[in-house]
Amino acid sequence: MHKCVTVVIGTKWGDEGKGKIASAEAKDAKLVIRATGGNNAGHTVVYNGKKLALHLVPGGIVYPQTTCIIGPGTVVDPLVLLDEIATLESYGITDIKSRLKISGRAHVIFPYHKHLDELHERLKEKPVGTTKRGIGTCYADKDNRIGIRMYDLLLPQEKLEKKIAEATKLHYEAFRAHDMEKNIMDVSTLAKAYHTCGEDFKPFICDVDPIIANAIEYNQKIVVEGAQAFRLDIDHGDYPMVTSSNPVTAGTLCGAGLPPQAVKEVIGVCKAYDSRVGNGPFPTEQESSLYMGMENANSPISPLVGDIIRELGHEYGTTTCRPRRCGWMDAVILRSAKYTCGIDYLCINHLDTLGEIGLKVGKVMVCTDYIYQGRVIGLFPDDIELTGEIPYPCYHIISGGWKIDKSCKTYNELPVKAKEFIRIVEKASGIPVKYIGIGPSNEDLIIRNNV
Ligand code: GDP
Ligand code: IMO
Ligand code: MG
Question: Distance between CA 231 and CA 128 in Å, rounded?
């Protein structure tokens, strides 16, 4: 079998710059596939000098030779997708109908999924901090075999209505029990609206398997654009503070319908510092005014390191605009990701930003080990909920920072301290750094072909 698949996945808690590297990889690709999650993702790509935030359509859509697939393992909010297609058309990408394919097996997010997502969060003692996009509740319906798939939007309206009626029975009971009657939408109205929506999607919905099989048969490059990330994986992440899919490499292959034998390389993406949006453990998180009601966010007197990183990195959610929690690079997680996700190469984005952070803070730090339960450990522990202890990071410190000129095109041209940072991460993670991001565009990428 031809090895023609490049998998791009997040190694931390999302927002590592996967959209950028996946779209850079798509430059010479035939297929680009989103395999897991839905519009909880927010992937930024730069197109004609403008930032485009994509939630469902793969970033490879900016290259005219690509066919972009929203795979069977995804959950799709059709209204969001219609909006996104209209936005892309307004940016001048007009041939979307012929280049975007949506698996008929992808599951549909309905308004009741979003209300249920809110309800679950409200009832929890410790909310996850979900994106409230109805992702987990849609996947739960899928697991309970009451999910509605993109194919179902093409059914005669009465048949769709029957399915919606069955799916909503218990959900509407829950709404009644929790003072949410206003969220109970009439089933036939819903069926009519989503059946009409199905008409709009007719050109896109199909069986994507033959398209994928053909690309493998002819050894054409396929890029899997991972969404979310390793530590958000429902089986391998910080359960319960996770998303509801498997964004690790194996999960993305399953969500796309790709065989592992076709994988050529796996690129793990991280930033030169770390961020997390939503709740859950974050060992290298730095103090920030997020926990003080944001009133000190831009205080000129004594800015906190977490705030400095957030402001210099513009760390506000692409999907929800929430301020992200920020901290230093955690290479222990990379070491764990190397094995769980089978990472061949790292892409480290925001090396430019880390240099500025270093100049402002006076140092940059890399976590190379943890102290946990009285011992030094080198992999992320999985019993944090049980012990109630967040691993304590051991840091390698580099004094000062650096400035990176946009004209810098090779690794050798990077400032000495920036190269020292890369070497430390490589040594601690055990993964070669092949791609280095020094700005938001696809061109702001240094590629080391000799690693
Ligand atoms: P994704 O969800 O992994 O695709 O990442 P997001 O798009 O949510 O967040 C990454 C942010 O970092 C976006 O605003 C990108 O434009 C920006 N970005 C990506 N790589 C770099 C880089 O190397 N330097 C700088 N300064 N910004 C970057
Ligand atoms: P991209 O692809 C960052 C987080 C949410 C929350 C948890 C569960 O842009 O990297 P969910 O709505 O999925 O049930 O929320 O997962 N989360 C993300 N955080 N980037 C993402 O996607 C995320 N997708 C989900 O913040 O903590
Ligand atoms: Mg994002």
Answer: 13
45 and 142 assigned to the same domain: no
Residue-wise burial string across 97-110, b where 16 or more C-beta atoms lie within 10 A, e elsewhere? eebbbbbbbbbbbb
CA of 148 to the centre of ligand 3 (A): 26
The response to whether residue 41 sits with its C-beta less than 6 Å from ligand 2 reads: yes
* pLDDT for 295: 44
Residue 32 CB contacts under 8 Å (≥ 6 apart), including other chains: 22, 23, 26, 58, 59, 60, 61, 66, 67, 68, 69, 222, 223, 224, 225
Which tokens belong to 410? Answer: 């090779």
- The verdict on 129 and 197 lying in the same domain is yes
Which residues, in sequence order, are bridge partners of residue 393?
Answer: 370
Ligand index nearest the alpha carbon of residue 129? 2
Asked whether 72 and 103 are in contact (CB, 8 A), the reply is: yes
129 lines ligand 2 (CB under 6 A): yes
109 lines ligand 2 (CB under 6 A): no
Pair 434, 369 in one domain: yes
Pocket test for ligand 1, best of 34, 350, 351, 443 (most atoms within 8 A of CB): 350
Per the structure, how many domains does the chain have? 3
- 228 and 309, same structural domain? no
Nearest to 98 by CA among 13, 241, 211: 211
How far does the chain reach from its first CA to its final CA, in angstroms?
26
Nearest to 135 by CA among 36, 10, 37: 37
Where residue 381 sits, what CATH number does that domain have?
A: 3.90.170.10
Distance CA 41, CA 57 (A): 10
Local confidence band at 401 (pLDDT 50, 70, 90 cut-offs): very high
> pLDDT grade, residue 296 (50/70/90)?
very low
Whole-number percent of the chain with pLDDT over 70: 97
